[in-house]
Amino acid sequence: MGDFFERIVDLEVTGEEAGPLAGRMVDWMADAGLITRETTRDAMYSLSVDVGYVPGPGWARAVADSSDASWIPGPVAVVVGRDHHVGGQGESEADSATCPRCATTTVIIDYPESWEADPEAWQPFLDGIEDWKETGTGVAPCPACGASSPVTDWEFGPGFALGALAFDFWGWPPLGTRFLADFRRRLGHRTQEQSGKF
Ligand SMILES: [Zn+2]
């Protein structure tokens, strides 16, 4: 099951803090035996990094249930840099966007009428997200209340997240709640968990 992933996205870290924080998280996971410090290109599908850390002897402590032998955990990729992260099977748009000011949800993909993003609805978000990736700041206007808010304050639903640091666990079974809580505490930030298939 090498092309399935479990992912943790840090929703709050800045581009400048992401690298040092990534280093500390790798140190912690390696010291805990969840990963090794050895890297591999095998079974890696992350889009912006070529190598991931080989699982360590204690990898099973990070997952909810390690008894299903069909799961063979693969590398853990550390993705540093402002980017959007999508779960599921690689859609690159959000399903919806909820305004941080007025809480109105703008529909981007009108399931089940459509399985594709409405380009007119998505474009202002895409523009803001591109600005954020390039400069660290980007805004999108709300069609309902007219307020422009930072794209990182919008809520894009469970399968789409913006963040400057993400961890892709390739081929790992679903991560355990205790591990996730510990992971979030060590990041010190809000996170989004995603899973999907490349
Ligand atoms: Zn609004």
Automatic annotation (TrEMBL):
The organism of origin for this protein:
Streptomyces clavifer
Q: What is this protein called?
A: Uncharacterized protein
The source's superkingdom equals Bacteria
